Amino acid sequence: MKIILLGASGTIGKRIYDKLSKKHDVIRASRSGDVKVDMTSTGSIEKMYKSVASADAVVCAAGEAKFAPLSDMTEDDVYVGIRGKMMGQVNLVLIGQKYLNDGGSFTLTTGILADDPIAGSAAVALVNGGVNSFVTAAAQELQRGMRINAVCPTVVEDSAQAYGDWFAGFDPASMDRVANGYVRSVEGLITGRVIKIY
Ligand SMILES: NC(=O)c1ccc[n+]([C@@H]2O[C@H](COP(=O)([O-])OP(=O)(O)OC[C@H]3O[C@@H](n4cnc5c(N)ncnc54)[C@H](OP(=O)(O)O)[C@@H]3O)[C@@H](O)[C@H]2O)c1
C-alpha cells in the first residue's frame, strides 16, 4: 500500500512508521517532512494530495490542542485544538476523499481525554470527542469502499515522563500496542471505529 503518514517524526508517528514501513510504501508528511504539509491549511492539504498521487491510506498522528486550567481558558486556547487537531484531521478527510484510491482508508488520532479527563484538559477533550464522533458518522457516508477509524490512545510510554504528574494513576500504553492500533485500522476491514488503546 502507498500510505501518507502525517506526523511521522513525532513520538507516536515514528513508531507507526517503523511498523508500517516494513510492509508498505510510507510517505512521511509534516511541516518539515519529506512531503511538506501544514494540516491547519486547506490549501496545503490539497497540495499534499496533488503531489502524492494514488495513495491507499492516510494516517494522521499529528494535531495540536492546548491544555489550560478552565478558570484561565480563553476562546483562543480552545481554537488552537479546533483549528489544529480537529479541523486539521477533518479537512484531511473532506479533501482526501476526492484523492484516495478506491477502498482507501483514513486513520485519525484522538486520545483518552475524550473519556477520562484530567486537570486542564477541557479543550483537548472537546476536540478528541468531536473527532471520535466525526469518524463514527463519516464512515457511513464515505464512498468507493473507503474506510475511516480513529486510534484513541491513553498516554503513551514514550511521553509519560514528559507529562510528569498530569497523568498520575494512568497506565501508559506500550508503543507497540499503540502502533498496532494503526496497523489494525490500515490493514483490517473495520470502519467507523474508535480503537481505544487504554
Ligand atoms: N503522546 C501521547 O501520550 C499521546 C496520547 C494520546 C494522544 N496523542 C495525540 O497523538 C498525536 C501525536 O502526538 P505525539 O505525542 O506523537 O506528538 P509529537 O511528538 O509532538 O509529534 C507531532 C508530529 O506532528 C507533526 N505536526 C505538528 N503540527 C503539524 C501541522 N500543523 N501540520 C503537519 N504536521 C504537524 C510534527 O512534525 P513537524 O514539526 O515537522 O510538523 C510531528 O511529526 C497528537 O494529536 C496527540 O494529541 C498523544
Quickly list its features:
alpha/beta, 17% strand, binds NADP nicotinamide-adenine-dinucleotide phosphate, 198 residues
Structural notes for this entry:
The chain has a seven-stranded parallel beta sheet, with helices on both faces. The protein is built from six helices and seven strands. It is α/β, with parallel strands linked by helices and 198 residues long. The two termini are 28 Å apart. Bound molecules: NADP nicotinamide-adenine-dinucleotide phosphate. NADP nicotinamide-adenine-dinucleotide phosphate (NAP) binds at residues 6-13, 30-33, 37-40, 61-64, 85, 109, 111, 153, 155-156, 159. Residues 6-13, 30-33, 37-40, 61-64, 85, 109, 111, 153, 155-156, 159 line the site of NADP nicotinamide-adenine-dinucleotide phosphate (NAP).
Sketch the topology as an H/E string, one letter per element. Answer: EHEEHEHEHEHHE
Give the rounded overall mean pLDDT: 98
| Main sheet makeup | 7 strands, parallel
Distinct compounds present: NADP nicotinamide-adenine-dinucleotide phosphate
Structural class: alpha/beta
The Cα radius of gyration reads 16 Å
Summed up, the helix count is 6
Separation of the first and last Cα atoms: 28 Å
Q: What topology, given as strand order, has the largest sheet?
A: 3-2-1-4-5-6-7
Which stretches are poorly predicted, pLDDT < 50 over at least 5 residues?
Answer: none
Shape: globular
- What is the strand content? 15-25%
Number of strands: 7
Percentage of residues in helical conformation:
25-40%
